[in-house]
Amino acid sequence: MALIKLQNVEDLYEIGDILGSGHYGQVRLVRELATGTSWAGKFLKLRRSVSSRLGLERKSVEREVEILQALQHSNIMALKDVFESKAEVVLIVELIGGGELFDFIAEKENLSENEAIEFMKQILKGVGFMHGKHIAHFDLKPENIMLLDKEQEHPHIKIIDFGLAHHFTQGGEYKSMCGTPQYIAPEVINYEALSTAADMWSLGVITYILLSGMSPFQGDTDQETLRNIVAMNYEFEDQYFSLTSAMAKEFIEKLLVKNPSERMTADECLIHPWIKPLTRKQAATRSRSSINMKNFKKFNARRKWKMSYNMVWACNRFCRLQLLCKSSAKADEELRGCESDQEDTETKPASLLRRRLSSNS
């Protein structure tokens, strides 16, 4: 059960400036009165009744809280406290101020595979701990891999956003069609039973992008992207992978495997020769290889542009809805499809995309 305090959050924390806002609430800077430590407070609106369309279901908030309370790890966003009132739940979480890992890398002039591996190790340790608790994230993507403080000599990775995460129970089967199209595994699209292996597929895609600046399955539309994933339609083009070591490509190949049971686990990844060289020759080969920075910068710029465009599009759409829609319930329904953390304007829930795939095939 989620451990939720019934006290007033302001009894223990001083509420500060707004750091961000979305359809379901705000993120504010908060300061713990007892210690002076700064945290981030997620103020989430709850649905007032079963029939209400405004706010989050209490069960979904409880599920995320339970998962975060079970994941106390240095590479996973920490949850400090949870408060509840009639109208909202407040999550006091770690203040992560270093921005996204991909943005940090894009600011560099060059990056060796050795340096990239140090980031991958941290991600794998966090994911491995998560999977050891029988929890899958189901939304691993660049936007959810952050730095605690980018000014540190060796920046610390933090995995965030557990809104789609699931805790597996013995004998239980779980299916879901949620996620961001270019990072989801084939079994998600095919609506098959899922496991923690779906996260390992996502890490394979992230590693491919990190090294080349290209997305392995990205098509001109989301439907094409999903077709490419199901068909395993990807390759290591020389123009993008000329600087990449053979070990790195093998590492990716062992993650982008259609059969989930045949993918490497996080623990197996950590002992793969690309991550942990077995010989001096392997270490030397890795140190001479680097990521394709020119292409990576282009990819990240496109990614950020799409995110910014989507935020403007969502705001404009909401304004039009306010003006045109007589029913506030209808306005709320439309807005649900335009959350600010979506990757681009074409990104829809995988279930909708799969239905479109079926109707077009």
Automatic annotation (TrEMBL):
Q: Which SMART domains match?
A: S_TKc (SM00220)
- Boundaries of each Protein kinase domain copy? 13-275
Biological process (GO) annotations held by this record are: intracellular signal transduction; positive regulation of apoptotic process
Q: Which UniProt keywords apply?
A: ATP-binding, Kinase, Nucleotide-binding, Serine/threonine-protein kinase, Transferase
Keyword Nucleotide-binding included in the entry's annotation? yes
Protein family membership: Belongs to the protein kinase superfamily.
| Name listed for the protein in its UniProt record | Death-associated protein kinase 2-like
Organism encoding this protein: Clupea harengus (Atlantic herring)
